[in-house]
Design brief:
By secondary structure, the protein is an alpha/beta fold. The chain contains 4 helices and 7 strands. A hairpin with a 5-residue loop joins strand 3 and strand 4. It binds adenosine-5'-diphosphate and magnesium ion (MG).
Length: about 160
């Protein structure tokens, strides 16, 4: 299954995060790819604030690699940012293999662990709206691809 969602402003991003929060469950992996500043953390925050009880600001895990939350469905949700890591070995040290199975994971910069990411992950590619625009533009395009059957009910942003 795949979906292309063009022309998303920041509010639409938040709406998408709320929709994706329905799929937070053990073993579910959201793999967020895209350049710096495209909105991976923004989308992750929207998923987290909808699916977990968080009263404080949701920090970006760029420096401490993993932020862990308890989801409303009692699953541990990991928000992981691999930007500052250099090897698969370093990622294994944070316990990612167990987390991919037992927890729900939202992973920014997942390319480093491509080999161990489950094939049923929810792959989300974020892009600036057109190649010539930059982070100065507020429009984004998102492509979602997955073979995970839990997404069968997903019907885009307004479905
Ligand atoms: N349509 C949009 N969707 C998401 N973020 C947007 C959008 N338009 C502007 N922004 C801004 O772009 C930045 C995205 O930053 P962030 O989510 O940290 O990106 P990343 O984690 O991909 O590096 C934020 O400052 C956000 O306010
Ligand atoms: Mg980020």
């Amino acid at each position: 299954m795949d979906w292309t969602l063009p022309c998303l402003d920041e509010d639409s991003f938040k709406k998408l995060g709320v929709k994706l929060a329905d799929y937070v469950n053990a073993g579910v992996v959201f793999s967020l790819s895209g350049n710096l500043g495209v909105g991976k953390t923004t989308l992750a925050r929207a998923i987290i604030s909808q699916s977990c009880n968080v009263n404080t600001d949701i920090p970006s895990p760029t420096y401490n690699l993993v932020q862990s939350y308890e989801s409303n469905s009692n699953v541990e949700l990991w928000h992981v940012d691999l930007y500052r890591l250099n090897s698969l070995q370093e990622v294994l040290e944070i316990g990612i293999e167990e987390a991919l199975i037992d927890n729900c994971c939202i992973i920014e910069w997942p390319e480093l662990i491509e080999q161990i990411i489950p094939s049923h992950s929810i792959y989300i590619q974020l892009d600036f709206q057109d190649r010539n625009s930059s982070s100065l533009s507020n429009q984004r395009m998102i492509t979602i691809k997955t073979s995970n059957p839990i997404m069968t009910s997903f019907d885009g942003l307004y479905g």
